[in-house]
Design a protein that fits this description.
There is one protein chain. Helix 2 packs parallel to helix 3. The chain is of the alpha/beta class. It folds into 2 domains: 225 residues, Rossmann fold (3-Layer(aba) Sandwich); 171 residues, Glycogen Phosphorylase B (Rossmann fold). 44% of the residues lie in helices and 18% in strands. It is globular and about 65 Å long. The strands form 3 sheets. It has an 8-stranded mixed sheet with strand order 5-6-2-1-7-8-9-10, sandwiched between helices. A 6-stranded parallel sheet has the order 13-12-11-14-15-16, sandwiched between helices.
């Protein structure tokens, strides 16, 4: 591996830090690859844990992990719900703090800023332009466009006007970046349309990917379930019990399998956790594990047969959990639309059903139950797809190459 002594800033809030056995996600995996290449990496983030809704540090905090990754965590106001005024305020506070602190530091060779939050990315763009620093905007979600999906149709045009400042800020961020990257073709295309420009050779897609889970670390939480799960067909959901991916429908479907050798394991937490827990109280074939650490997820995937993605609306989503399931070789049962739906169909790594359609979801599960040989074929194709396309080592090696190419283009023209 060639060594490059680049100074690199990564800007991303709302993603788990690689501490306390947390699952490594996009920023952490990219940071590891860059560190292996000899880069000095600073990750700007928040002191607030977006997933667990708790404070990691009481105040602004700068730390260095054992692998050399430096983290600058800024304190906002926190929030209880993902879609809330307090989250909006929290991101504004972080952006203002970044604006003040970054100008007191030695400038980096390049900045890779996630978008959203676009207010923080906006300050990163301004700083990059001021100091002549190349900046890549990595589009993670379709903010503020997605906000409109949660409003009645007759209010959306009014809401778009009310959010005019947010839409203009987002367009500025996407337009002024040296290049755009994203997790899917759909989101990259959306970003280019918002920016009002054509795609160049430097605008690229790097899927989220997942880490290999060949060896399953010991997990006392999952070990306690192992005896009960043995010999049963296991459907898993891993993630946040939120507005978009609410596993409540899995409880509804579980009622139809009460006398069969099938178990639904729902791993995670969120605003709908108590609601789902109450709904599943009398069911012996539904197990709620609470929040899972990386070792727990790896151990659970070893015992599971399929991974479920119960999207409540007709969104063209492509959630992180796709790559969690694929890394464990699990075929997917999904109600997501758009690119993920097409990928499942094209590669034959799972089954699609309509959002909220419990009958269709039951049918998908029964199809795998009744056809073990066909299920095995789906599982083998899923494993092969991970090995050839979605292994994080492949993805983030390419992403790191791209970052170096962007620096070279700015330096040498």
């Amino acid at each position: 591996m060639k060594k490059r002594n680049l100074k690199i800033w990564l800007i991303k809030v709302g993603e788990q830090l690689p501490i306390e056995n947390n699952r490594k996600m996009r920023t952490a995996l990219l940071a590891e690859e860059l560190l292996d290449r000899g880069a000095s990496v600073l990750w700007w983030t928040s002191t607030f844990d977006h997933f667990k809704k708790k404070w990691l540090f009481p105040n602004d905090k700068e730390i260095t992990l054992d692998n050399g990754l430096k983290i600058m965590a800024l304190k906002g106001c926190g929030y209880r719900r993902n879609f809330s005024l307090f989250r909006f305020i929290d991101h504004r506070i972080l952006a203002r703090k970044f604006k003040s602190i970054c100008r007191k530091m030695e400038k980096p060779d390049i900045i890779i800023s996630a978008n959203p939050p676009y207010d923080l990315a906006n300050e990163a763009i301004d700083f990059a332009k001021e100091r002549d620093i190349p900046i890549i905007i990595d589009i993670r979600d379709q903010w503020p466009e997605i906000f409109l999906e949660y409003m009645p149709r007759f209010l959306r045009s009014v809401a778009r006007v009310a959010l005019g400042t947010e839409f203009r800020m987002n367009k500025y961020v996407l337009k002024e970046a040296d290049c755009l990257t994203s997790m899917t073709e759909t989101i990259l295309k959306w970003g280019l349309e918002c920016a009002g420009r054509e795609k160049t050779d430097f605008d690229k897609v790097f899927y989220l990917g997942g880490e290999r889970m060949e060896e399953s670390p010991r997990s006392t939480k999952i070990e306690s379930l192992e005896k009960y799960l043995k010999g049963k067909f296991v459907v898993v959901f891993v993630g946040t019990f939120g507005m978009i991916y609410n596993p409540s429908i899995l409880v509804d479907v579980a009622r139809r399998f009460t006398n069969e050798a099938i178990v639904f394991v729902l791993g995670g937490d969120g605003i709908y956790f108590q609601e789902v827990k109450k709904k599943a109280e009398m069911l012996t074939n539904v197990m709620l594990t609470g929040w899972l650490q990386q070792s727990d997820i790896a151990a659970l995937l070893k015992l599971a047969h399929v991974g479920a993605i119960p999207n409540r609306e007709r969104f063209a989503a492509f959630p992180n959990k796709v790559f969690v399931y694929i890394s464990g070789g699990l075929p997917i049962i999904s109600s997501c639309q758009g690119e993920l739906k097409k990928m499942i169909e094209d590669y034959k790594i799972g089954l699609n059903y309509g959002p909220g359609d419990a009958d269709a979801l039951e049918e998908c599960i029964r199809y795998f139950l009744k056809n073990p040989e066909i299920y095995s074929e789906y599982r083998e194709r899923t494993r092969n797809l991970f090995e050839t396309k979605f292994d994080s080592e492949i993805i983030y090696n390419s992403f790191a190459d791209h970052i170096e190419h962007v620096v070279e283009r700015r330096k040498y023209g």
